[in-house]
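Not sure how to ask, but would you mind making up any protein sequence you like and the tokens describing how it folds?
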Amino acid sequence: MRHTAHADYALRVLLYLRVAPGRQGSVAEIADAHAVSRHHLVKVVQRLASAGIVTTMRGRGGGVRLERDPSAITVGEVMRTMENDFALVECLGAARFCRVAGVCGGRDVFSRALDAYFAVLDDATLDDLAANDQGLRGALRLTQHRAGS
């Protein structure tokens, strides 16, 4: 299974906010820290805001901020927010054209695999992903100096 760039970027945004001083940053800062497109991050942040995972604020001192405690944000929630198709095989999707759908055991096997996958993601929080917060701060070039800004 491979997730879209938007799901990947969502996790990057959230990791940045989790380790950033004040748990806040602008889209431009986050995009620069991860060397990704600001245009794509705007869409990602809008979707995260619609889901109540982040809050956006305009104007001076504005930016993006975590809406909830990072220990309450699961990776599974983020993936479900950002992705709209988890059909590992055709018979798990809306359209079913497979000739053996309904008579083979594949649907059950892949359905159980997807359930197990989400059980792991639902058990992992943003805090778990950011366990090495000092390492993340270094990789993202975040310094404590920014805390006053």
Q: What stands out?
A: Confidence is low (pLDDT under 50) at residues 145-149. The chain is about 50% helix and 5% strand. Strands lie at 24-25, 54-57, 63-66. The first strand starts at residue 24 and ends at 25.
